[in-house]
């Protein structure tokens, strides 16, 4: 299991200590967001769902290590901490942040949203951009195959070794897309409503392995699966995959939220949050 130390959610001393850290992501210049100024990004100027409040959506359950104890509002876990830091940069107090449960697929579907922003490991894709807005990226992600020691793919070293495997992933995710577009197994992938269902299928042998993002892979194999094994990271294809905050299409908040994320990247805060909550999420074998 990862070593985690809760991180204070604000304070100039904390941010100054973070400056020397490396930035965990580079901004994806292929996708631009509106510019914003300090005046237009103050809470009094932002057209949020509830005046003076910032409504933040995420899935239920909210998984480790992105959240902790399925309590998004406790500030623990990488995405919870990022959300509170974004809120702080926008001028909101912690008490002004309101969390709401939103299913993954509903958050990226066309139509009005019940949230101002949503943080839930959403990879930025052109297809999704047709329905929603994304902030600047806050995390560079790798998709990863995991299994158990008794599985026939536990010793797989290459994509070719996975051709005959029955694999699965959560519906609507880039993890699922990685199976169809990168691994391309002979058998069609199994699809699950959430990672809990995927994990159960792996445990009972319905699938040989499942695909998740790398930090989730480390957490699940260390803390949730008996004899869990990381088979390996999948190759990056094309533009590196990055997580972004989701907003309603054409949201007036998009530029302000991107500005806040950019500040967190540039002053090293994202790097510190990554080291705090995603420590150990590196060093997994590479599948070629």
UniProtKB/TrEMBL annotation:
CDD domains linked to this entry: PBP2_peptides_like (cd13530)
Source organism superkingdom: Bacteria
Pfam families, sorted: SBP_bac_3
Domain Solute-binding protein family 3/N-terminal: 53-281
Domain Ionotropic glutamate receptor C-terminal residues, every copy: 53-280
Name the record gives this protein: ABC transporter substrate-binding protein
Signal peptide annotation: 1-17
Keywords: Signal
Statement: the UniProt record of this protein carries the keyword Signal: yes
């Amino acid at each position: 299991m990862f070593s985690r130390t809760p991180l204070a959610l604000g304070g100039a001393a904390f941010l100054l200590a973070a400056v020397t850290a490396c930035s965990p992501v580079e901004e994806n210049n292929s996708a631009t967001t509106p510019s914003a100024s300090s005046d237009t990004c103050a809470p009094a100027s932002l057209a949020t769902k509830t005046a003076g409040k910032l409504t933040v959506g995420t899935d239920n359950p909210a998984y480790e290590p992105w959240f902790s104890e399925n309590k998004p509002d406790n500030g623990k876990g990488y995405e919870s901490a990022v959300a509170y830091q974004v809120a702080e940069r926008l001028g909101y107090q912690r008490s002004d942040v309101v969390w709401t449960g939103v299913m993954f697929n509903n958050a990226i579907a066309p139509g009005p949203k019940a949230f101002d922003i949503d943080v839930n490991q959403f990879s930025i894709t052109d297809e999704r951009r047709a329905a929603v807005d994304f902030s600047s990226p806050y995390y560079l992600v790798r998709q990863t195959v995991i299994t158990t020691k008794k599985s026939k793919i536990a010793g797989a070293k290459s994509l070719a070794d996975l051709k005959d495997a029955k694999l699965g992933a959560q519906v609507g995710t880039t993890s699922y897309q990685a199976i169809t577009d990168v691994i391309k197994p002979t058998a069609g992938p199994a699809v699950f409503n959430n990672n809990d269902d995927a994990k159960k299928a792996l445990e009972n042998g319905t699938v040989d392995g499942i695909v998740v993002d790398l930090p989730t892979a480390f957490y699940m194999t260390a803390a949730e699966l008996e004899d869990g094994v990381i088979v390996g990271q999948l190759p990056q294809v094309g533009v590196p995959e990055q997580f972004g905050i989701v907003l309603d299409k054409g949201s007036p908040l998009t530029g302000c939220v991107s500005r806040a994320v950019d500040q967190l990247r540039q002053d090293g805060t994202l790097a510190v949050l990554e080291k705090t909550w995603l420590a150990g999420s590196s060093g997994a074998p590479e599948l070629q």
